[in-house]
Structure formats: C-alpha cells, structure tokens
Amino acid sequence: MEPPLLPLFALSILFLSSAASHSLSLKEDSNSSPFPPNFLFGTASSSYQIEGAYLADGKGLNNWDVFTHKPGTVTDGSNGDVADDHYHRYKEDVDLMEDIGVNSYRMSLSWTRILPKGRFGKVNQAGIDYYNRLINLLLSRGIEPFVTISHYDIPQEAVDRYDGWLSPEIAKDFTYYADVCFKNFGDRVKYWITFNEPNVAFIRGYRIGIWPPGRCSGSFGNCSVGGNSEKEPFIVGHNFLLAHGSIVELYRTKYRKIQGGKIGLASHTMWFEPISNSTEDKMALERAQAFYMNWFLDPAIRGDYPIEMREILGDDLPPVPEVLKRIKPSIDFIGVNHYTSYFVKDCLYSVCEPGLGSTRTEGSALTWAHVNGRTIGKPTSLDWLFIYPEGMEKIVTYIWERFKIPIFVTENGVGWKEEPNLTIEEMINDEDRIDYVRAYLDALVTAIRKGVDVRGYFLWSLLDNFEWTDGSQIRFGLHRVDYDTLERTPRMSASWYKTFIALHGFGPGAKPLHTQE
Ligand code: BGC
C-alpha cells in the first residue's frame, strides 16, 4: 500500500514555525515524494491581472482595458491600470518566487504590450525587451517560464476593426502575434499555452454577457450591445479553434524542430457529481463535460466535437476547422485549471428550474453547487467556489482516461474577500487557504498514484491580483498586496508552500521536463 500523504502534509505544517529559525533538513523525506521526478511546482498569474502599467512604454489598449473603464462593469469599480504594478516590480516578485523555491512560473504575455495594434501596427520593442528581461531573470534563478500567449486579452484594434472573436480574422491576428512571440522568446520558452480558458471567456463574453464584449440575448442576461446567446458562443468558439490550430501548425512547421518546445491549451474544468444514480443524471454529467470542457478539448485533440454536442446542436455547430484534423492532436499537454465542483441534474428527460446549463444550447444539464438543499462542499466568500477536493482527483482522472495526454494543473487556489479592520497578522493568516491547497494536492496525489500522468502544479496565485469583474477585493495571493502602497507581505500559505515544495518537490538533479521524452 502507498504511504499516506497526509502525515507528511501535517508534518510540513509543524515545520512552519520552526523552519525559519532551525536548520532542519526538510529534504529528508524527499525519497518518498509522491510526485514524479522533474515535476513542475509553480505559481500562476496573468498579465492583465498583475502588470498594471496599462499605457506605459507604448502599450496599446486591449479589450479588458476598455471594458473595465466602463462604469458598472467591475463590482468594486477597480481596474487593471495599476494592479500589482508587476511591470515595474517584477524583480521583487521573482525574488518572492525564488524564496518559495518554485521551479516554474506560469505567466501570460500582454498582446498589446507587444503589438499595440495587433497586426495593423508595429512591434513594440519596449514590450519585447520587458518580457526578455523577465524571462531571462526567471531562467537565471532556475525558474522555468510556462507562457500563455493570451489570457483573455485581445487588442482593442481587433474589436474595433472586425468585432474580435466574432470574425475569423482574429485567427490571422493571433497567428501573427504568436509568430512574434515564438521568434523573440522561443529560444528560451519551452512550454506554451495558446489561450487561457476559451470556455470561460466565451460563456461570459457571449452567452451571459458579463465579460467583454458583454454580448447576450433573451433570458441569458441584459446586454445593451446585443448578441445571440444561443449562436455566438459557438461562432467565437470556432474562430478560436481556427486560431489555436493555426498557431500550433505554425509552431510545428517553423519552430518546433529548432526550439523543441511543447504547446498546450488551458481549460477551465469542473467536476460534476450527478445528483442521483439515475442513468439520466449520469448522462447529464457527460453532457455537462461535453458542453463545458470537451467543447474545446475534443476538437483540439480528437479533431471533432463531442458526440453529445453533435447530437443536440446538429447543424447549429460550426464545422471543425480543417487545420485541427490535419494536425491532431494539436496539443502536447492539457492545462487543467481547477477550483471547484458542482452537482449536475438531467434536464433532457426531466423538468428543471432555469439555471446554469439547463438550456438546450448549454447541454440540458443543470449545474450548481446547491441542489435540493444540499451543498457540494464548504462555501467560500466567492459565490462560485466551493471546496470539494475529490473533484480534483476525479477531473484529472476523467481527462487522462479520455485523452491520454500529459496534464499540468495550470491553476488551483482559493480566494477570499478581506474583512475590514483586520490587523496585518490577521490579514496574512490564511490557514483556510493552506487547508484548501493541502486537500486538493492530496487528491491530486491520489490520482497520480493511480497512474494519471500529471507533470506539474501551478498555484493561483503568487500575489493578490485584479480578479476580473470581482475587482481587487477578492484575494487569491500567497502574498498579500496592499493596493495603496503596493507592498507585498507573505501570507502563512507562502511559507507553507515553500516547506511543502522542500519536502515533496523535485529532488536533486531534477531537469526541466522538456529535456525528457
Ligand atoms: C482564471 C484566472 C482567475 C482565476 C480565479 C481562472 O479561471 O484563469 O484568471 O483569476 O480563475 O477566479
């Protein structure tokens, strides 16, 4: 029987207070590490959420710059103009990573820092220089850059000229941009992600309309700019798949041989627990996965949409771009962003109250954390995030069994709203976060021990950051950021993660994964 992980986790907590003052050999137990050799342990972030400097050094406007400046779009009225000012403070932030002892960092590039007007203008050398400085610094500290080409941001120029994702033109812009990235950074960046969470970006932007460009119709939301919630998500999804395929094809033909990197796609993932043992509710689980995650993973890997989508949507589903059939599987790894799980209930054969997932174009599978008076897990101050660690084990197992492609957990973490009038000691006491991360890592290890090929884990996030339409009030950081002074203060979770990595992380002589087969 495998040794249980929990005592070691508990041990790492015990070490917390003494680790700083005593020279304990925390690696003593590393022989029993449940993680494969060369496992990547990192933190994750995205450019808009941390960089700030929104008009500095020639950067152009992106869709989020423009959206957050519209009154009423962000709950607390904040925006990413300054955020954590990571653009100017990246050295300090890399020091924080080095102190934790991570061997990798998931970051994203700001498209308009590099191409202020997409392909309709010049390359901004200041943007290239900035990312070169950051990448070089990371590598000099032994931290592998894991780079997302776009984490939701697209140039406003693309929106103004041709409605952004609604036009297949976006594929040309994205490929042009990716070419600039591969050319300038690909000698050092060996892990690329084309786009972060197309499912979230398109559901929120084009079905319920709460994210840019704020489009929706009918009962899905109240959108002044128009939209078609039943059709547009699939049109933009198609254009995204075109862009993704074309970027990967470009990398494979022009760069892969010389640069030797790998490309993946990061999906937001949910585990869904059927509300009953009925066949209908179990089928609803498959439909929920099809319409949420496999909508993109299936075409990207298998070259076709999931059968559940085909059956329900028929001709309403745009064709899979030819490029994805040519290059399948188009990804070398799957980026799994996982935070929470919901119940799922069938709405094809039984009547459902209206709610997330219940309509035909969402797959007729109602999903939410509360059903029939039951809650799936412990609530947090985020209305969408419930603590259900089993979901981590189940989702990576499901993905591995379906696709047999290596997995990196590219995001996992928990955020809280800070109560007013706390002392600094109280602000940095985040035992709840430690409990969450410990439990989710434990569940991940259970999957790894069963043979699921997981190669890395990126904790969201190094710093508190701009949490999209929830603004700056929601804090996901291992470090607290004082938004008046921009001072970073490590929370208890930062020392916990440091101790955890020292105990269980990559052992001596570990090499970056891209050097292995
Ligand atoms: C997104 C992040 C976001 C995090 C927490 C993820 O789905 O990729 O940008 O901050 O969730 O909400």
Automatic annotation (TrEMBL):
SUPFAM superfamilies: (Trans)glycosidases. GO terms for biological process: carbohydrate metabolic process. PROSITE patterns: GLYCOSYL_HYDROL_F1_1, GLYCOSYL_HYDROL_F1_2. InterPro entries: GH, GH_1_N_CS, Glyco_hydro_1, Glyco_hydro_1_AS. The active site is at E411. One of its GO terms (molecular function) is beta-glucosidase activity. Residues 1-21 form the signal peptide. Gene3D superfamilies: Glycosidases. The keyword Cytoplasm does not apply. Keywords: Glycosidase, Hydrolase, Signal. The keyword Hydrolase applies. It comes from the Eukaryota. Belongs to the glycosyl hydrolase 1 family. This is Beta-glucosidase. It comes from Vigna angularis var. angularis.
